[in-house]
Amino acid sequence: QVQLAESGGGLVQAGGSLRLSCVASGRTFTSYHMAWFRQAPEKEREFVAVINWNGGLKNYADSVKGRFTISRDNAKNTVYLQIDSLKPEDTAVYYCAASTLYMTTETRFGYWGQGTRVTVSS
Question: 1: pLDDT confidence band, cut at 50, 70 and 90?
Answer without folding.
Answer: confident
